[in-house]
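S1.2 Input.
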Amino acid sequence: MNHWEESIRDFSHYLRIERGLSPRTAQSYALDLEKLRLYVQQHCPQNAPWELTFEHLEDFVRECARQGLSPRSLSRLVSAVRGFYRFLNVENYTEENPALLLETPRTGRRLPDVLTVEEVDRLIAAIRLDEPQGERNRTMLELMYACGLRVSELTELHLSDLFFAEGFIRVRGKGSKERFVPINTRAIRLVQSYIDTVRSHQEVSSRWADTVFLSRRGTGLTRAMVFTIIRRAAADAGIEKKVSPHTLRHSFATHLLEGGADLTDIQAMLGHASITTTEIYTHIELSRLAEVVQRYHPRAQISKK
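S1.3 Output.
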């Protein structure tokens, strides 16, 4: 019996015996997890259940949504995955729960939330620099927006990945694929200042000796910590949009496109395997242009009268 079969069997037993769920409900959850097992078998067959990341799970759920799974079935599937990884976490198979922030995607093609340049400025300015982790938090937000990083790419960034003299950082994306991303001088200055004035004075666990951004205990940051920092900053900045680490990545790509950057260049910087993934930003730009026409074109104004 392999890791997947054994883990799903143990989870089903836990649902029936300890949670008191009906055999039918436990079986439904097991069938949902079987979908996950088959997805892993196709895309990353070497991974045991506890080796999957949030990105793996998010991609799986999105794939199920694209295949036309009903909203009710999709909601149950996400619930099953969350419960499964909560079980693995409690049983100490995983140090962190990669499904903690997993959400049920809305059906249909939805454009990601994007901040304006002014809103990005307000978000970063809302970081409280008088707090112990203020400079670290401001630096993280600035770097995510400057380089279009995923949250996992930020938390896994190493000191050895910083090539400031050349103006690049090395990023480890999905599937451990590496890419080099340009970094602007402002972001370089803030990262270097954080390293020199904050990080260099911390006691660092040997496991995290090469990690750039650390918790106050000298260990690596979790995704949940970064989510909390950004959501708090958004609230302090009075931004009513739903803001997450991915919002800064979306804003990075959209602002580059609005500024005239080539789509293939944006694809390379984001680490998208397919240009079709990057093309979502052309829809954002077209949507913005449509609003401009409706607001300013004389014929559009006449049609409103």
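S1.4 Remarks. The CA atoms of residues 153 and 297 lie 42 Å apart.
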